[in-house]
TrEMBL record:
<keyword id="KW-0697">Rotamase</keyword>
<comment type="similarity">
    <text>Belongs to the FKBP-type PPIase family.</text>
</comment>
<keyword id="KW-0413">Isomerase</keyword>
<dbReference type="GO" id="GO:0016853">
    <property type="term" value="F:isomerase activity"/>
</dbReference>
<dbReference type="InterPro" id="IPR048261">
    <property type="entry name" value="SlpA/SlyD-like_ins_sf"/>
</dbReference>
<dbReference type="Pfam" id="PF00254">
    <property type="entry name" value="FKBP_C"/>
</dbReference>
<feature type="domain" description="PPIase FKBP-type">
    <location>
        <begin position="7"/>
        <end position="81"/>
    </location>
</feature>
<dbReference type="InterPro" id="IPR001179">
    <property type="entry name" value="PPIase_FKBP_dom"/>
</dbReference>
<protein>
    <recommendedName>
        <fullName>Peptidyl-prolyl cis-trans isomerase</fullName>
        <ecNumber>5.2.1.8</ecNumber>
    </recommendedName>
</protein>
<dbReference type="InterPro" id="IPR046357">
    <property type="entry name" value="PPIase_dom_sf"/>
</dbReference>
């Protein structure tokens, strides 16, 4: 029986949910996701959680922020002049910005004031406890 190792190609169903039961991401009603262990598709602690599992196994793991998307960092919340935005804004809207290296950086519009806009560059799930539910479909050696 193949078990998941750091040399595995894995096919699985997964679900991420909040403490209140709200599902924030799931592929249980779709096709399973395929990934090669260590390819960056899953967060490192999510990968560690499924090590040793085999095809057909299901499990749920509670993931604190430090093992999921990190703590909410106030330094990632920025105030910007409203004049910098040439579009209609709504709270909760995701806007793409460029960082110093011209890489795309998404920010969530957290607050819209008369003269300034508060943009949160934290991952939307930062600071949240999550439940990671997984069902392993298949495990094979990575090519």
């Amino acid at each position: 029986m193949n078990v998941i190792t750091t040399q595995s190609k894995v096919s699985l169903f997964f679900e991420l949910s909040l403490d209140n039961g709200q599902v924030v991401d799931s592929n249980f009603s779709q096709s399973p996701a395929d990934f090669v262990f260590g390819d960056g598709s899953l967060l490192p602690d999510f990968e560690k959680a499924i090590l040793g599992m085999s095809a057909g196994e299901e499990a749920s793991y509670r993931m604190p922020p430090e093992k999921a998307f990190g703590a909410h960092n106030e330094n990632n919340v920025q105030r910007m002049p409203r004049s910098q935005f040439s579009m209609d804004l709504e709270e909760g809207m995701v806007v793409s910005f460029a960082d110093m290296s011209k890489n795309e950086l998404p920010g969530v519009i957290a607050e819209i004031g008369e003269t300034e806009v508060v943009v949160d560059f934290n991952h939307p799930l930062a600071g949240r406890d999550l439940t990671f539910r997984v069902k392993v479909v298949s495990v094979e050696a990575a090519a």
